[in-house]
Design a protein that fits this description.
Pfam families: Glyco_hydro_16, XET_C. There is one protein chain. The chain is α+β, with helices and mostly antiparallel strands and 316 residues long. Helices cover 16% and strands 33% of the residues. It folds into two domains: 8-224, Jelly Rolls; 251-308, no CATH class. It has helices at 8-19, 28-31, 230-236, 257-270, 294-300, 302-308; strands spanning 32-36, 41-44, 47-52, 58-62, 65-76, 85-92, 100-106, 115-121, 130-132, 143-149, 153-158, 161-167, 183-190, 210-224, 271-274. The strands form two sheets. An eight-stranded antiparallel beta sheet has the order 1-4-13-6-7-8-9-15. Strands 2-3-14-5-10-11-12 form a seven-stranded antiparallel beta sheet. The chain starts with 7 loop residues before the first helix and ends in an 8-residue tail after the last helix. The structure holds 2-acetamido-2-deoxy-beta-D-glucopyranose (NAG) (3 copies).
Length: 316
């Protein structure tokens, strides 16, 4: 689904559409296919449901791989007792030095809040977990979960609100995922050895099947045929004089001021764990944790900065 716009006017128009969230969504089968446990898939019109029971979970994968762009889907998580279950939604490349961007929704007992764990793997190395609760009950309605990925940043979005940014800090010698095409995946499985309250609460199979529902699949990204080499992919998916991808526009290279404020709000009110500040695990702070969006906010808005001062807002 590569988009090649040559005219700035057209580009502005389409960026406008994206911002308004009007990018058209596709049927599940246009973009994805079941990865495992076909018999745990339920198709109901535009809805797809994945089922976890004591025989199996289920998972699906995109038919193509992509390098840069935006991927979204709307998910409604397991209602009622979801303790022990994990619903994951992620992008990943393959191989021992793979890159991966994860949303993992950790279930809970009835009435207790889901946790959203995010992680970023670069060249096979993860250990960059963040955990947060959400400002709504993700089991009651569909909400959109997106990944925006370009040469400058990876942004995790919930209903278009940024909840995490992984910034390109190659200038500090930190590798950034920009060479490997990634597939898009989702699955539901039993993880009661760790998911809920650190593994204390086990899956209650008398409440199975556990069902996660999906709709509104959108992929607006540079598509990479499997047969194509890494070099060719990098060339195809980089903006150049002849073609300009919307995600390479200057406005996409960092969060807008409004988005920066949203991220500050999310982190202040909903973040419950951040590897950046876990000194037991990382006595030496990860280098990427040292960055803050305060300086950016300060640059743009001297007045409001004082209110944010003192609040550490790592970008990692
Ligand atoms: C489940 O609920 C408990 C109690 O409210 C909370 O401490 C925990 O963070 C919640 N989420 C998970 C995944 O354990
Ligand atoms: C799965 O759960 C059902 C209902 O609780 C039970 O009857 C069945 O024996 C279980 N199957 C397996 C393989 O554990
Ligand atoms: C983090 O930033 C502080 C202040 O800018 C600097 O003194 C320190 O060396 C930095 N640490 C790392 C690990 O980059």
């Amino acid at each position: 689904m590569a988009v090649l716009f040559k005219m700035p006017v057209l580009l502005g128009f389409f960026v406008g559409l994206m911002v308004l969230g009007l990018a058209s969504s596709a049927e599940f089968h246009e973009l994805f296919q079941p990865g495992w446990a076909n018999d745990h898939f339920i198709y109901e019109g535009e809805l797809l449901k994945l089922k976890l029971d004591n025989f199996s979970g289920a998972g699906f994968a995109s038919k193509s791989r992509y390098l840069f762009g935006k991927v979204s889907m709307q998910i409604k998580l397991v209602e009622g007792d979801s303790a022990g279950t994990v619903t994951a939604y992620y992008m990943s490349s393959e191989g021992p030095y793979h890159n991966e961007f994860d949303f993992e929704f950790l279930g809970n007992t009835t009435g207790e809040p889901y946790l959203l764990q995010t992680n970023v793997y670069v060249n096979g190395v993860g250990n960059r977990e963040q955990r947060m609760n959400l400002w709504f009950d993700p089991t009651k309605d569909f909400h959109s979960y997106s990944l925006l990925w370009n040469q400058r940043q990876v942004v995790f979005l919930v209903d278009e609100t940024p909840i995490r940014v992984h910034t390109n800090m190659e200038h500090k010698g930190i590798p950034f995922p920009k060479d490997q095409a990634m597939g898009v995946y989702s699955s539901i499985w039993n993880a009661d050895d760790w998911a809920t309250q650190g593994g204390l609460v086990k899956t209650d199979w008398s409440h199975a099947p556990f069902v996660a529902s999906y709709k509104g699949f959108e992929i607006d990204a540079c598509e990479c045929p499997v047969s194509v080499t890494t070099d060719e992919i990098a060339k195809k998916c980089s903006s150049s004089a002849e073609k300009r991808f919307w995600w390479d526009e200057p406005t996409m290279s960092e969060l807008s001021l409004h988005q920066s404020h949203q991220l500050v709000w999310v982190r202040a009110n909903h973040l419950v764990y951040d590897y950046c500040t876990d000194t037991a695990r990382f006595p030496v702070k990860p280098v990427e944790s040292n960055q803050s969006i305060e300086s950016r906010i300060r640059k743009e808005e001297m007045g409001g900065y004082m209110a944010l001062k003192g609040m550490h807002v790592g970008q990692c």
